[in-house]
């Protein structure tokens, strides 16, 4: 173990931390060091420890000395309050917005982007690049450091040579979640009117386009999707359905978190083999090994104590890098809508989910309350009702 002193010019704080040479902090120190209670200066610590894709347990950092107390971050989010009825959002959570009640706060949006960049650079971290790894290299899973996988020839062939988001900037972006709140929303045309559309987990659009739109510029695909939505490709029929979904992407970015957790490596390999065999027109991306920890570190500094960021929150955090104005659709982690009517977990299937289960790796209601706060502040727009397509198109024409 050794000591490193970090000085943060942002908040004029010096912190000395005790590290192991691997920069992977898991050792419980026996000396009476004070825990890092408020996660101040976490951006400095993570930027040091995540060099060369090292890892750090954010809860295992101990302060040896602090020379000055950090001032309150003006962009820090207020701590979301807890509530007992998890079927609906709390009364102080924005759940329905009139068309004219939201104004974009460009100053705050730029400030959030600047702060996120202290933790990660989404343009770089959106994917590992060819040249940083080679076939046969051993990778430790992000959430299971004791388990490893090898870089296959197929994965190496599909690694991008440059970031798929290099030099991209878009005025208006839509991030489309998969909540059943989208059903009967008539938001399809509005979603497709954005300059860049991000979707999650290969959610189907063809039969739901009236509510969710069709345009896709980037879509995520957790390995479990191959099993859950395409029956592990057990037959030619399911393999063809999977291929049709991939072909429908037509040059979009396919973002595959291949190194997050053990158990999905075989499904990832099936998908990669099909993409190569059928020369499917997609641009594959595989997130950097530091991304999840860096994103979590950013939100922890803002008193948002998430366990593991959901795909939706990950996409919002990264989108701040290349989107000026961000609109969220299909984000609704409650089984009832604002009127007390049942809401499906996914708009396209019958999957059941306990949003507040202690065994879940996610804290969805907490994330939603955080996003609602950002909506009220004008940093993003959270759409949870039906869409007035005519009025929206008129607003877009007037703003151009």
UniProtKB/TrEMBL annotation:
Record carries keyword Protease: no
Q: Where is the composition biased (Polar residues)?
A: 90-99
Any single GO molecular-function term of the entry would be: alpha-N-acetylneuraminate alpha-2,8-sialyltransferase activity
Whether Glycoprotein counts among this entry's keywords is: yes
Where is this chain's protein located in or outside the cell? Golgi apparatus membrane
Locate the region Disordered: 74-99
List this protein's GO terms for biological process: N-glycan processing; oligosaccharide metabolic process
Keywords in UniProt for this one? Disulfide bond, Glycoprotein, Glycosyltransferase, Golgi apparatus, Membrane, Signal-anchor, Transferase, Transmembrane, Transmembrane helix
Membrane topology recorded in Swiss-Prot or TrEMBL: Single-pass type II membrane protein
One cellular component term from this protein's GO annotations in UniProt:
Golgi membrane
Task: Spell out the family assignment given in the record's similarity comment.
Answer: Belongs to the glycosyltransferase 29 family.
What is this protein's name?
A: ST8 alpha-N-acetyl-neuraminide alpha-2,8-sialyltransferase 2
Species of provenance: Amphiprion percula
């Amino acid at each position: 173990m050794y000591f490193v002193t970090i000085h943060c010019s942002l908040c004029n704080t010096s912190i000395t931390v005790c590290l192991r040479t691997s920069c992977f902090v898991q050792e419980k120190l026996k000396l009476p060091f004070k825990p890092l209670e408020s996660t101040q200066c976490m951006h400095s610590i993570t930027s040091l420890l995540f060099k060369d894709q090292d890892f750090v347990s954010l809860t295992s950092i101990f302060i040896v000395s602090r020379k000055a107390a950090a001032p309150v971050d003006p962009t820090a989010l207020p701590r979301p309050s807890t509530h007992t009825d998890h079927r609906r959002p709390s009364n102080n959570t924005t759940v329905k917005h009139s068309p004219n009640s939201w104004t974009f706060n460009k100053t705050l949006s730029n400030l959030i982007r600047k702060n996120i960049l202290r933790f990660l650079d989404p343009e770089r971290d959106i994917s590992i690049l060819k040249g940083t790894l080679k076939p046969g290299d051993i990778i430790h899973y992000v959430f299971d450091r004791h388990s490893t996988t090898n870089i296959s020839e197929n994965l190496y062939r599909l690694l991008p040579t440059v970031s798929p988001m290099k030099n991209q900037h878009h005025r208006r972006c839509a991030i489309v979640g998969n909540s059943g709140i989208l059903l009967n929303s008539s938001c399809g045309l509005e979603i497709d009117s954005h300059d860049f559309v991000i979707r999650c987990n290969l959610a189907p659009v063809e039969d739901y386009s009236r509510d969710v739109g069709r345009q896709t510029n980037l879509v995520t695909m957790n390995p479990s999707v191959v099993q859950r939505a395409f029956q592990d490709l057990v037959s030619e029929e399911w393999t063809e359905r999977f291929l049709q979904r991939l072909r429908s992407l037509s040059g979009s970015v396919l973002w595959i978190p291949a190194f997050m957790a053990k158990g999905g490596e075989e499904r990832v390999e099936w998908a990669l083999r099909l993409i190569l065999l059928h020369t499917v027109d997609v641009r594959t991306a595989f997130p950097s090994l530091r991304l999840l920890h860096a994103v979590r570190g950013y939100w922890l500094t803002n008193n948002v104590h998430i366990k593991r960021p959901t795909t939706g929150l990950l996409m919002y955090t990264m989108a701040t890098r290349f989107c000026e104005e961000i609109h969220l659709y299909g984000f609704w982690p409650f089984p009832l809508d604002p009127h007390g009517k049942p809401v499906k977990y996914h708009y396209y299937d019958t999957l059941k989910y306990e949003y507040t289960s202690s065994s879940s790796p996610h804290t969805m209601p907490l994330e939603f309350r955080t996003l609602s706060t950002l909506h009220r502040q004008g940093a993003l727009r959270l759409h949870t009702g039906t869409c007035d397509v005519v009025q929206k198109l008129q607003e877009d024409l007037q703003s151009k």
